[in-house]
Amino acid sequence: MRKGSVRTRAALGATLVVALALVAAGFLVVAALRGGLADNAKLKAEATAREAAAQVTDVEAAKAKEVDALDGDGPTQIVDGYGRVLGASDHLEGRGPVADFDRPDKKKDADEEGDDESDADEEDGPEVDTDTSTEQLTFPVDDDGEVTYDKDDIVGHQDFRVAAAQSVTRDGTPVTVYAGASLHDQEQAVSSVTRSMLIGLPVLLVVVAGVTWLVTRRALRPVEGIRREMSAITASTDLARRVPEPDSRDEIARLARTTNETLAALEGSVERQRRFVADASHELRSPIASLRTQLEVAAAHPELLDVDGAVEDTVRLQDLAADLLLLARLDAGERPADARVSLAALVREETAQRVGDRHPVRVLDPLADGEVRGSRGQLKRVLGNLLDNAQRHAEGEVTVALRTGADGLVLEVADDGDGVPEEERERIFERFVRLDGARSRDDGGAGLGLAIARDVAERHGGSLTVSASPDLDGALFVLRLPLAGG
């Protein structure tokens, strides 16, 4: 992956999100501004129309053109019920009723436009909806934005909001007052805001992209340090090295700590593997050397062949190879079988087969009923290893009990030996460990039996611990396994 690609993607992503948000906000602002200004124009037109309508009530129809409201800035017109224009502002002087004016979407024929009222009445145009108080119309304007119908002065057209108000003159003539307010300010304001957004948006996006890139670069700087150190560790194969941990408490600091924990676990695993290989080589060397010596002596002096010793060394070598093979499978993550195993039947079978033990094995009845899930062969190996260990260290008695515990079945193997010192109770489960002192009368064990037993117990979801036996004053090994579900 190209260096800096994460920073680039983060900057582009943030810029895109901000751009979308700003565009959406811009549309909302422009729409709100346009609507607000249009409402203001509408209110202005309605106010002018109401003002003119109120003034009309004080004059006669013939003098409607003298109403003060006709002198305002916007186009204003007073029309009677017959469509005759009684009064108009300068903008609409000489024009027909506003109701007959063209709408914005229709073209005006300039050649047919005249200066008198009859010509204006002949112009085509949609009528203003009498049910609507306001209507938007387009009037021609000059270069000052004033409404004009002089061909020489027309430079464009503007939209107006025109309001209609009903009234009655003093002499009882019903009239309609039309007053318009220009929408030019609205259009200019919207145009100005739009231009400002179009200019400011790219600048803001550049700032957002730059700030995001810099912030992301600073945030990812520790990641680059972790990467460099991991690359150096890989090149040097020195697992004792550790990646730098930032002082912050963010995700990167947690990543660094987790990486160091992984390196520590890997270092420990590699160290255990080296120790295992060295110890296995040492343990294999002794029976192989002894067996070779006996064979060489037998080859030179057949009468001196110690068949029993050769067989004993061969069996020891075979057992050690089997132990090493099982440990290798367990280390490789081999999962036990999913069979249902009766521990009570397994205890009876194993104890019945141990006819050559130095000390009798006493089974404490009753044995609890129940089944566990796992490999029958591996569980039998666990029980056998525990009994072998008890036989090596017992003074005269070994007991086996099976009871139901709170979390499953509990198998207990006890002996009347010297027991295990409390400070050594975890160490005896390490591989190739044999204690000194009272339990040093190991008659050939390689120190793998208890390690295998605990590994198998944990693979079956259980545990194996050792404590002092309350009945025999020796060692008590307790194997706990969960009951098989239905």
Structure description:
- It contains eight helices and twelve strands.
- The chain folds into three domains: 137 residues, no CATH class; 79 residues, Signal transduction histidine kinase, dimerisation/phosphotransfer (DHp) domain (Helix Hairpins); 146 residues, Heat Shock Protein 90 (2-Layer Sandwich).
- With 486 residues, the protein is an alpha+beta fold.
- The strands form three sheets. A five-stranded antiparallel sheet has the order 2-1-5-4-3.
- Helix 4 packs antiparallel against helix 5 and helix 5 runs parallel beside helix 8.
- It is rod-shaped.
- The longest helix is centred in the middle third of the chain and has 53 residues.
- The protein starts with a helix and ends in a 5-residue tail after the last strand.
In short, what is this structure?
The protein is α+β, with helices and mostly antiparallel strands and 486 residues long. It has helices spanning 5-56, 117-121, 184-236, 251-300, 307-331, 343-353, 376-393, 449-459, and strands spanning 76-80, 85-88, 134-141, 156-168, 174-182, 339-342, 361-364, 371-374, 398-405, 408-415, 463-468, 475-481.
